[in-house]
Amino acid sequence: MKLLPRCCSSRKSGGSETKPSESILPGYLSTRLTFCLVAIALPSLSLAAQTLSDNEAILPACIFQAGQIFAQTHPDLPHGDQIPIDHIIIVMQENRSFDHLLQAMPAGVDVAPNDAFNVDKNGIRQQMHRAKTPCLPDPPHFWSSAHKQINGGKMKGFATSGGSNAMTHYDEGWLPYYYALANTFSLSDRHFASIPGPTWPNRMYTVSGGSDGHIDNTVPPQADEEKSIFHQLETAGLDWAVFTSSAPSFEEQIFPRLKAEKGEHFQAIDVFLKRAASGKLPAFSWVTSAGEHNEHPPKSVQAGQKFVSDIIGAVMKSPNWPRTALFFTYDEHGGFYDHVPPPLACPPDKQLPELAANDINGAFNQYGPRVPLIVVSPWARKQYVSHDIQDHTSLLRFVQARFDLPARDANATPPMAMFDFSKPAFLIPLTLPEAVIDAAFDAKCEDLATTHFEDEAATGQ
């Protein structure tokens, strides 16, 4: 089964390209959809987009308008109560690319070639290699750095900015729980960050469908009117909550008025665990770790793995599990290497990036590098790998599809292909490997992180 979303080329393992085609929808639908795209002149695209290969430089057919509901844009796909999900959870960690985290996945998953390399700023060849520690230095990953790393689609600028460290990857020895999760449930190897840039704007895209021009890794300016999935759910009378292990969360800083008016919806992780145990999860849960668990280098990727395993374990044991879908992903690539050129994208609106004088010119018409996405649900397809092109707004679109809410980025296609709503494959929860934390590194990782973020706060860099 293949559902082509926003672009007509979907790169598979080995670098081959598929052409626009009809694709069979899930078993409960016999209709076919065709996504037809057109190649057009690209005078206004960023430098990175202008130099992409012919196959990559194809704009998606941005035919839908903001405000449309899913039944209007995709009338042959399930929506509302046709989707047997009552509880949607997004667990978002920080700063890991797909190849960096999941390079050791088996055949059928598109990972970098074994001989993948970049050349560093000294002209030295840096080959991709296994990480020797769970707490790596933090590579550059802001707007201009990300565009340079993409390098016009060549994906050759990572070691130039981040050295050998940017070319590291983890395997099952380091991350047994993550690899078991990816090998068991439904995995996407074509999920991209929404923009080539840092955490804050990508998180804004995930909850709002855009960043209102913001590209920096800073708290955005206060908007005249706050808009997000939280506001939509509140208006629709649906329960929602932001759960964080360390306040203030990104979200309460992005939406200060919402926090002031609806503070009871901003809760601690302990509350999430209790609500899961009692079968009282809200319709929508946004889970963010913060603190030592968020995996932002040099914080420990193993500590993040343990945090995520605790969240998923609580969900799988919850009375709500039979009608729950959990999306586990990362906000951006963090400056770590990925070999797949990000495709072009539909801008969510006419807002242009708010560029500083030294920023690389660009627009919101290209995704950022790939990040992992795993769907954990009774209804997730078993051991399935989706090659459909998606980004963070695809998750937002799934929430809007389930609750029949209008979309800001109506051209985003939700990851419906990662589900089989005709029969749950994981109604009985599974036992997954322990999320190990290597005691030899744990204290060292936290000390490194403390020093790093103190220096970052002092220098503003």
Description:
There is one protein chain. With 461 residues, the chain is of the alpha/beta class. The protein has one domain (13-459): 3-Layer(aba) Sandwich (Alkaline Phosphatase, subunit A). It is built from 14 helices and 16 strands. Strands 11-10-12-3-13-14-8-15 form an eight-stranded mixed beta sheet, sandwiched between helices. The protein has a two-stranded antiparallel sheet with strand order 1-2. A two-stranded antiparallel sheet has the order 4-5. A hairpin with a 5-residue loop joins β4 and β5. α7 (199-208) runs parallel beside α13. It starts with 21 loop residues before the first strand and ends with a helix. Residues 1-57 have low confidence and may be disordered.
Number of domains: 1
Strand content: 5-15%
* CATH architectural group: 3-Layer(aba) Sandwich
Q: DSSP helix count?
A: 14
**CATH class membership:** Alpha Beta
Cα-atom Rg, whole angstroms?
A: 20 Å
Low-pLDDT parts are 1-57
Secondary-structure blueprint:
Blueprint (H helix, E strand, L loop, with lengths): L21 E3 L7 E3 L12 H4 L19 H4 L13 E7 L4 H5 L14 E3 L5 E3 L1 E2 L12 H8 L7 H5 L5 E2 L6 H9 L1 E3 L2 E2 L6 H10 L20 H7 L4 E5 L5 H5 L1 H6 L4 E3 H10 L5 E5 L12 H17 L6 E7 L42 E4 L7 E3 L3 E2 H11 L36 H21 L2
Parallel strand pairs: 3-12, 3-13, 6-7, 8-15, 9-16, 10-11, 10-12
Antiparallel strand pairs: 1-2, 4-5, 8-14, 13-14
